[in-house]
Amino acid sequence: MTTATRTDPGAPGTSGGSGASARAPRGRRSRSGALVPWAFLAPFMGLFVLCFLLPILYAVYQSFLRVRRLGLFGEDGRETVFAGFGNYARALGQDGFVDSIGRVLLFGVVQVPVMIGLALVLALLLESASAKWPGFFRAAFFLPYGVPGVVASLLWGFLYTPGLSPIIDVAGWAGLDLDLLGPETVLWSIANIITWLFIGYNMLILVAQLKTIPVELYEAARIDGAGPFQTAWRIQIPLIRPALVLTTIFSVIGTLQLFAEPLIIKGFTVNIDTAYTPNMAAFNSAFTDNDYNVAAAQSVIVALTAFVLSFGFLWLVNRKDRQR
């Protein structure tokens, strides 16, 4: 009696092609699955390149060009020529632009530590065990960030103006002569606006980091007899250090980008000129002097300054970490 053996065409060693055909769809599925994350990233990457990367590259390109007018008054037309670093030399040769960089650096040295320190204190107070209504006060402290910078500058501009400001009136009743828009004080009046606007934003970043600290650490500190100050100094502040570094870097970059607030306050005082900050100087070069190439060079200088300061701060922080 002969026993018939059934051969599976899909089994290994057989001549059937169904195994290859079964593996092929799986390979196609794996390749298509690998493309899914890129499909989700594509809209962001497209907007990032279009709205961020290309404008930066175009500004760098424009900073190396110069428009040369032909004829005595340009009546024979004009041509664009390569200027090398000439626009950068012209930008740095403007005393107003150089002074504006020094002004915002002084602004940042004073205002950034004050703002980050106040944001840290508010975050620690709101996350303490004895805090009452923390949700309400978090919303209240964050509320100024929802006010546009132009509107906030207008509000504070009226509060700084003599005859309109209740602050100056109350100070006058107390025998104080306040000049909040004077040549020596207007910079710090702008610093007050920036601090009022962004202290709540930085506070929320620190609060979010504080909420990641395990409860067990607080319980252990309480068992060891640590008070609120020791808990904050030895547990909370070291563990939220990355958030402190992040908010500091954001604040440094924001300092170099000052534009809307001094531009609005300029309407209330004569002590702010058209080159009071680097961005105002670049704006003036582009839209008043019609020198877009110098404005591009000034913008690149501001960006490089922000890059150097940010990464210099990161290097300093990481260097201290390595030495520990």
How does this structure look, described?
The chain is mainly alpha-helical and 324 residues long. It folds into two domains: 45-84, no CATH class; 94-323, MetI-like (MetI-like fold, Orthogonal Bundle). It is 69% helix and 3% strand. The chain is built from 13 helices and two strands. The protein has a two-stranded antiparallel sheet with strand order 1-2. Helix 1 crosses helix 13 (292-323) and helix 10 (241-256) runs antiparallel to helix 13. The longest helix is centred in the first third of the chain and has 45 residues, at 18-62. The radius of gyration is 30 Å and the shape is globular. The protein starts with 17 loop residues before the first helix and ends with a helix. Residues 101-313 form the ABC transmembrane type-1 domain. It is found in: Cell membrane. This is Sugar ABC transporter permease. The chain crosses the membrane at residues 35-61, 104-125, 137-159, 186-208, 239-260, 295-317. Belongs to the binding-protein-dependent transport system permease family.
Assigned CATH superfamily of the largest domain: MetI-like
What sort of overall outline do the alpha carbons produce when their principal axes are compared? globular
Span between N and C termini?
86 Å
Average pLDDT, to the nearest integer? 87
Order of helices and strands: HEEHHHHHHHHHHHH
* CATH architectural group of the largest domain: Orthogonal Bundle
- SS class: mainly alpha
Number of strands: 2
Low-confidence stretches: 1-18
